[in-house]
Write a structure and sequence with these properties.
The chain is an all-alpha fold. The chain contains 5 helices and no strands. The chain has one domain (2-106). It has helices at residues 2-20, 29-40, 48-66, 77-92, 96-106.
Length: 108
């Protein structure tokens, strides 16, 4: 199930990349999360620790696949999935959003 979610996300990211050539990973967030959504629908949106754990596993698989990419090649779909999930995981980490908001207002 996790491997299928990763492949769906990779395919969605590569399709989006081919169509638009985005350089910022936040532009891929919607397509990546939409591709993963059917595989994790059974997890309540309110159950953040469990959802975060699933995202971490998918991210680690993406990193493992991306490590096999030849040196010097452009981003792969796995790179995009890794970057998007890294951001999502950070925001699901308890206290991160509040700390970021504080740093944005008052500086670090």
């Amino acid at each position: 199930m996790i491997e299928e979610a990763l492949e769906a996300a990779r395919l969605a990211a590569e399709t989006e990349q081919t169509a638009f050539e985005h350089s910022a990973t936040y532009r891929y967030e919607k397509c990546v999360l939409e591709a993963i959504k059917p595989f994790i629908e059974h997890i309540s949106i309110l159950d953040r620790p469990e959802r975060r754990a699933v995202y971490v596993v998918i991210q680690k698989l993406a990193q493992r696949h991306d490590a096999k990419r030849p040196w010097g090649t452009k981003w792969s779909g796995y790179t995009i999935v890794d970057a998007v999930l890294g951001s999502v995981i950070a925001y699901l980490t308890p206290g991160f959003a509040e700390a970021k908001r504080y740093a944005d207002i008052y500086g670090s």
